[in-house]
Write a structure and sequence with these properties.
Layout (H helix, E strand, L loop, with lengths): L21 H11 L2 H6 L4 H7 L8 H22 L2 H19 L7 H20 L3 E10 L2 E10 L7 E5 L10 H9 L3 E6 L4 H5 L9 H16 L12 E6 L2 H11 L3 E7 L11 H11 L4 H9 L13 E7 L7 H8 L5 E6 L10 H16 L3
Parallel strand pairs: 3-4, 3-5, 5-6, 6-7, 7-8
Antiparallel strand pairs: 1-2, 2-4
Helix pairs in contact: 4-5, 5-6, 7-14, 9-10
């Protein structure tokens, strides 16, 4: 099936799953958040299996929150014992559970905001105890507010070339920790970026996505240069930066590479170069929250400002496009336009791949991280 806009929710409308039918509602949520996605974002396998269990009667967000709280209790006990490694692992598993708890809400209800604060605190708690990775929260000035990002690198090592990682309509920031860790293990650094319209940047910073989003990516690069000193006092080598966009974030990543020549490599994973609103309630709600608008017509107008046209938009960056043959949201023809943006394109297809290749997450992440290392070099 070919859909006109990438999103991280299924085509099935949650309106078809009434709240008085918990089994149907849980099935609809599981289509949006399958087991493979839970594992990709770092949930404990047993916790993910329990959350996916159709026989569990409690609401999705309550189950996910309870699983997170059990991991937080383990983390705190391990920290008290001095077992920092266990504490870090449990805090990160709690973060992942809270990511899926807050995703039960498409718009910024107080419950969603509160859960997002909790997952951010859990991720910060892991960062404070981690001796192998250095995870620093960045507040990037943008417009009259700020964007939230997390800079991830190897502890005690000179930061390597940096890859900015960005999500889509519902998965942001700490959701991609495993990708950041894989980059760091290869001598690269990562920035888990919450762009305007996403995560804490939206819910705390009050910023929404529009056609000026490219400037936010440039602001992140400025912040990384200030943090690392890369390129200071010399002619800057743009190959030192990469950008990796997942789902709708693939479009944002490609736009960043087109508009800022400091990006020397770009990966697009499951996106559409010319998005339009979908006619499903879940997608509409997420899009409106992302864009800060109230109607479909307003959403369509903002989305048109994000379109890329290979005839006019070009990048000198190497470009990698990933596609899953079983992606129900983005067909290959919707992805191919990205290949025409660069003189150095590569297409990798998994014939049985889901949206953003959740079901091949380990191989996908290893392939992309190795590709970035080949393009950007090492520390």
């Amino acid at each position: 099936m070919d859909a006109p806009v990438p999103t991280e929710t299924p085509a099935e409308d949650l309106a078809d799953a009434p709240a008085d039918d918990p089994a149907k509602l849980r099935a609809a949520l599981l289509r949006a958040m399958p087991l493979s996605r839970m594992l990709d974002y770092g949930m404990d396998h047993g916790d993910a299996v329990h959350l996916a269990d159709a026989a569990v009667p409690e609401p999705w967000h309550e189950v996910a929150t309870r699983l997170a709280e059990a991991q937080l209790t383990r983390a705190e006990a391990a920290a008290d014992r001095g077992d920092a490694e266990t504490a870090v692992a449990c805090y990160r598993r709690a973060t992942a559970s809270l990511i899926f708890a807050q995703m039960a809400f498409n718009t910024d209800y107080p419950a969603k905001r509160a859960l997002y604060v909790r997952l951010t605190r859990a991720y910060q708690a892991a960062a404070e105890l981690d001796t192998e990775l250095r995870v620093e929260r960045l507040s990037v000035p943008f417009r009259q507010s700020h964007c939230t990002a997390w800079f991830v690198s190897r502890s005690g090592a000179r930061p390597g070339p940096t890859v900015v990682v960005v999500g889509g309509q519902s998965g942001w920031g700490p959701a991609f920790h495993q990708q950041a860790e894989a980059l760091a293990r290869r001598g690269l650094s990562a920035v888990l970026f919450e762009a305007p319209g996403q995560g804490d940047t939206r819910m705390t910073g009050g910023l929404h996505l529009d056609g000026n989003v490219d400037r936010a990516f440039s602001a992140v690069l400025d912040a990384v240069r200030a943090r690392t000193g890369t390129g200071t006092g010399t002619a800057y080598d743009g190959r030192r930066y990469g950008v990796w966009g997942n789902s709708f974030g693939g479009l944002l990543a490609a736009r960043a590479a087109v508009h800022d020549s400091r990006f020397g490599a770009c990966c697009v994973n499951g996106a559409d170069a010319r998005p339009e609103p979908l006619p499903f309630r879940t997608a509409r709600e997420q899009s409106r929250a992302l864009l800060g608008v109230d109607t479909d017509d307003e959403a369509a107008a903002v989305l048109r400002t994000l379109w890329l046209d290979p005839a006019a938009d070009r990048t000198s960056a190497a470009l990698l496009v990933l596609h899953g043959g079983n992606d129900p949201l983005v067909g290959l023809d919707r992805q191919k336009a990205f290949l025409d943006l660069s003189a150095h394109p590569t297409l990798r297809v998994w014939d049985d791949g889901d949206h953003t290749l959740y079901n091949h997450s380990a191989e996908r992440t290893e392939f992309v991280c190795d590709w970035f290392r080949a393009q950007l070099g090492r520390a």
